[in-house]
């Protein structure tokens, strides 16, 4: 599967930060991580930091799959409203999942400090606007549900929105816990640090065969090299479903563009907060640390790479039209546009942990709009599963929920 179309900005901005060798020999280790994107990097880093032997294998160059197309908005809100999620999975798990995502935002910030590279991490507020008047009651319910869960946020009436921003929406929720990051740069920083702790990283190495054995797993690559490990952590993102009989994800395409540097945008209040909306699919916007605007949305069902490619120009045009309607005093020019494949689950929660389909395997499937926060949660759960450390949060994301 080709996970992206067009020209994602992050590899262009950063270049090829680091290349790794292709595996050319047999290896033994504790855990093999399949996937060298942001999820695999977080898993590898947490395992290596815990003293676990790690081998990372990716069939591409590092961070050039869906990570390169990530818009990297860090939000605690899952794609399902908390008020609705409570009815789907129960109050305890719903509230805890929101708090885990909230905590993950700040943990990622602390990680960048540990790494000695801010990776474009910037704490932000997040504005969730009611797309129509019909959505206002649901936003009020969501406001009450989050407040009852101890989450700090404000309910903005129309007059509050119009006084702070150049656009007019009937209501909005203003959250105080959000951030943005450069996921491509963060992936490289994490793997560089993991390698410094003994992890071995190999790119352009495809896993062709998985053999479960009494003492672990043997992976065979496309070049015939064998990697024997006690456990395998699958962090291959949206390409993982092809290896699972259990249907856990619906694939969609999302489209985005980033502008030429423009500086502060007139009418974008709250210090350039993240912006998204209640409509489904939703529009989302953020800025960058070098003064650009990133706009995404126009999601549709994924049917083929070629069709997604053909839709990109028209989708970019529509996104620009939406932006101009919201910020008429902040003209921008498109620098790069791209599309990426992503997935949604039935309840908006990730799938993390073990499945009977893959003996001695762990999965880190952070599907949804806040995949990076899920990836951090997955890294902690997989580390704890391997080291035998109790982690009650693993039950929230189990495959048999």
TrEMBL record:
Span of the signal peptide: none
GO cellular component, one term: cytoplasm
UniProt name for this protein: FAD-dependent oxidoreductase
Organism, as annotated: Kouleothrix aurantiaca
Pfam short name (any one): DAO
InterPro entries named in the record: FAD-dep_OxRdtase, FAD/NAD-bd_sf
UniProt cross-references to Gene3D superfamilies, sorted A to Z: D-Amino Acid Oxidase, subunit A, domain 2, FAD/NAD(P)-binding domain
Organism lineage: Bacteria, Bacillati, Chloroflexota, Chloroflexia, Chloroflexales
FAD dependent oxidoreductase domain location: 30-385
């Amino acid at each position: 599967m080709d996970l992206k179309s067009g020209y994602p900005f992050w590899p262009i901005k950063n270049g090829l930060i680091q290349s790794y060798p292709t595996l050319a020999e047999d290896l033994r280790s504790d855990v093999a991580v399949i996937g060298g994107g942001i999820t695999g990097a977080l898993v590898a880093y947490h395992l290596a930091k815990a003293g676990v032997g790690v081998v990372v294998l990716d069939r591409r160059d590092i961070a050039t799959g869906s990570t390169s197309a990530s818009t990297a908005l860090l939000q605690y809100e899952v794609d399902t409203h908390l008020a609705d999620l409570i009815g789907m999975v129960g109050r305890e798990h719903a509230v805890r999942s929101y708090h885990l995502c909230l905590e993950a935002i700040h943990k990622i910030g602390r990680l960048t400090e540990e790494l000695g590279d801010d990776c474009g991490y910037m704490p932000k507020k997040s504005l969730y606007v009611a797309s129509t008047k019909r959505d206002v009651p649901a936003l009020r319910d969501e406001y009450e549900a989050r407040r009852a869960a101890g989450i700090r946020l404000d309910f903005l009436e129309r007059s509050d929105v119009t006084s702070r921003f150049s656009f007019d929406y009937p209501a909005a929720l203003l959250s105080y816990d959000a951030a943005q990051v450069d996921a491509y740069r963060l992936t490289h920083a994490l793997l560089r640090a993991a390698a410094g702790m003994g992890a071995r990283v190999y790119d352009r190495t495809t896993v062709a065969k998985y053999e479960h054995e009494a003492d672990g797993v043997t992976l065979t690559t496309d070049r015939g090299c064998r990697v024997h490990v006690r456990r395998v952590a699958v962090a291959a993102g949206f390409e993982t479903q092809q290896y699972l009989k259990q249907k856990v994800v619906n694939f969609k395409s999302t489209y985005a563009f980033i502008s030429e540097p423009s500086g502060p945008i007139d009418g974008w209040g709250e210090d350039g907060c993240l912006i998204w909306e209640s409509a489904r699919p939703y529009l989302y916007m953020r800025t960058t640390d070098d003064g650009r605007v990133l706009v995404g949305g126009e999601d549709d069902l994924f049917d083929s790479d070629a069709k997604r490619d053909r839709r990109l120009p028209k989708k970019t045009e529509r996104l620009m039209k939406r932006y101009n309607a919201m910020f008429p005093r902040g003209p921008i020019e498109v620098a790069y546009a791209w599309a990426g494949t992503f997935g949604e689950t039935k309840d908006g929660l990730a799938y993390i942990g073990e499945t009977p389909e893959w003996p001695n395997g762990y999965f880190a499937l952070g599907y949804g709009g806040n995949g990076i926060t899920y990836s951090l949660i997955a890294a902690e759960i997989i580390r704890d599963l391997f080291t035998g450390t109790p982690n009650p949060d693993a039950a929230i994301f189990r495959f048999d929920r």
